[in-house]
Amino acid sequence: QICSQHNAGAPHSKQAFHRMAQSEFSLDHEISWFVLPSYWAKIIVGLISCMCFANSYDGDFVFDDSEAIINNKDLRTETPLGDLWHHDFWGGKLSSNTSHKSYRPLTVLTFRINYLFAGGFHPVGFHVINIILHCAISVLMVDVFSILLGGLQYSSKGRRLNLAPKASLLATSLFAVHPVHTECVIPDQYKEGNHFSILWVLASVLLGAIAMLCKEQGITVLGLNAVFDALVINKLNILELIQKVLHKGKSLENVGLFKKGLLFRITLLLSGGATMLCMRWRIMGTGPPAFTEVDNPASFADSLFVRAINYNYYYSLNAWLLLCPWWLCFDWSMGCIPLIKSVSDWRIIALAALWFCLIGLICQALCSQDSHKRRILTLGLGFLIIPFLPASNLFFRVGFVVAERVIYLPSIGYCMLLTYGFSLLSKQAKKKKMLAAAVLGILFINVLRCVIRSNQWRSEEQLFRSALSVCPLNAKVHYNVGKNLADKGNQTAAIKYYREAVRLNPKYVHAMNNLGNILKERNELQEAEGLLSLAVQIQPDFAAAWMNLGIVQNSLRRFEEAEQSYWTAIKHRKKYPDCYYNLGRLYADLNRHIDALNAWRNATVLKPEHSLAWNNMIILLDNTGNLAQAEAVGREALELIPNDHSLMFSLANVLGKSQKYKESEALFLKAIKANPNAASYHGNLAVLYHRWGNLDLAKKHYEVSLKLDPAAPGTKENYSLLKRKLEQLQKKGDV
Hints:
TPR_rpt, TPR-like_helical_dom_sf, single chain, transferase, elongated
C-alpha cells in the first residue's frame, strides 16, 4: 500500500518514497505491542481514560472550586456577560492590585453555561464535563501520536496513513492513564491542517488565542505548531541548519528553512504570539501579579545562585512526577519543598540527573544520523519543554512551586519519549512478551493510581488528609485540614491543625485568623486577641483579621478599640457588609441607636440579602417604639428575601403590636411552616392569640412551645396567666 504512490515528473520518487516509508515504519516494527484498527484503538483509549476518573463524577466542589465557582459572581445571571472580559479567573477586577491576573474568560464562560444548565451549583455537571473532555482529548491523541511518531504521509487517494499504530496506541494509553492529570481542569487542544495554506496558519493563531483565553499555557500551542511544521512537514535538519549558520559562506536554502514557505509561516506564528502577549499585557493593566514569598520561596531568594538551583530542582520534581506519579499533592507551597541553599545539599543529585538526561537526549536529537530518531526525540523534547515554559519562572514569577496541572501538555512529550525508549528496549530484548507484560503492568498501576487519586479528589477531607503524608511540612495542608474540621464542627481537632500550621509558618496570618475565631467562640479571648493582633501586625491590610479583632475587643468590653478595629477593616475593604453589621452591634450595645441603624443599613446596601442586619434593624426599631418604621423596614426586607422565616417572625411581632392580628398570624404560621421546631415562633404566636382573644389556639401554641423548649423565657409565665384566665372563664360559665 505504501509503495503504490508515485509522483509524475520525478523518475526515482517511487523508490525514494519507499525507503522513507520503511524508515518511518521502523519504530512500530520494533515495538512488541498490540496492533488494532484505528477505531478500536480509540474506543479502548476512551474507555480506559473514562475508567480512570469516572469515580469522581459525583464528588464535591473542593479546594479552589469554592473561589473559582461557588463564590465567583461571574457565574451568576445577574452579572453582565461583558464583565467576564474585565475580571480575572476568580471574579475579581483585573485592575486590582490583589488580582492574580489569571485571565481565562472563556473557561469562566463554560462554568457559567454549566451553572445555567445545571440550575445551580451542582458539582456533578462540572465533573462529568471534565471527564468527557479528558476522554475526548485522549481519543484525539491517537491520531496526534500517530503523526508525531509515524510521520505525516498520505495514500494515493489522499487519506492519511497511520505508520505507527502500535506506538501511537501505547503512547496514547500512557497519556490517558497518567495519574498527574487528576488535578487538571479543561485542558486545551489543537489540530493541524494543510501546511501549504496560510489560512491554516492564521487559524492556528486564532485557536491559540482562544486557548490562551481558557488557560495561559494555550499560547505555547503556537510554539508547538512551529516545531511540528519544521520537523514533520518540512523535515528540517536542525543540526545541519546550525552548521550552515556557523559557516556563513554556505547557503541556507538547501536545509529547508526557506522551502515551502516555512520561514514565512513561522514568522506569522511568532507575530501572532507577540500580538497576543501585548494584548494580554494591556488587559492585565497594573502589571504582573503580586505573589508572596510563601507562594514561591525560591523567586524571593536574594542570591541568583539559590534561585537558579531551586528552579532547576523544581524542574526535576516535575520530571519525577511524570516518571513516578505516586506522591501527588494539591499544593506544594509553604515549606513543602525546603530551599536548597548550598551545593552540599544531597538534592543537587536530582538536578544533575535531570540535566544529564536532557543533555543526552538533546545530543541524540541533534547529532543522530537517523532522521526518524532525530525527529521523534526533537518533537518529544519540544512537547515536553515548550508547554512548560510559562511555569518555569524564566520569564516571570509564578504563584506556585510545583503544580501538577501545568504538566498536562508536557506529558505528551514524556509519553513520546517513553514510547521511543520502549521501542529501543524491544529491539534489544530477547523476551519481548515479558517486556510487553511489564508495560501492561505500568499501565495497570497508573490506572489504579488514577482511581485512588480521583477518589481522594471527591471530598475536601480526603484530599487534604492525603496531602499530610506527601507534604507534612506544608503549613497550608494543615490549615486546610483544620478548616475542614472546623466547618464540620470539630473545633478541638481543628485547633490542633491550626496550631501546627502557625508553628510551621509563624507568619501564616490566615491560620492565625481562623484559630483566633475558634478561640473567640470558646471564650478564650486573651489568646484570641493575641493571635489576631499579631496577624494584623504582620499584614496591616488584613481586613477580616481587623474585624475579628474588633469582635474580641467588643467581648472584652474595650469598645473604643473595637470601634477603631472595625473602621480599620472597612478602610482596607470598602465593601464589607459583615463588618458594618458588627459595627452596628457595637453601637447598639452603646445605645447609639442612630449609628447602629446607619451601620446596618450600610450592610444591607452592600449585601441586600444580609438577613441578620435587616433583623436587627426591625428589632431595634420595635424595641424603641418605632413600630411604623419597623414595619416599613420589615416589608422592605421580605421583598428582597421573601423566604426568610426569621424576617417573617420579626415583622409578625411588629404587626401584632400594631394590632394587625390577621396579617401577623399569617406571617407567624408561614414562619412556623418553614421552621416548625422554633419554640419562640410558637410562643410569640400564642401571645398574639392571647391578645387577640383566641385562647384555645393560644393554649395550643404555648404547649407546643414549652414542649420544644421547657425553659423558654416568658412562655411559662404567659401560659400560667392563660390557664388562670381560662379557669376564671370556666367558673363564670359554671355559675
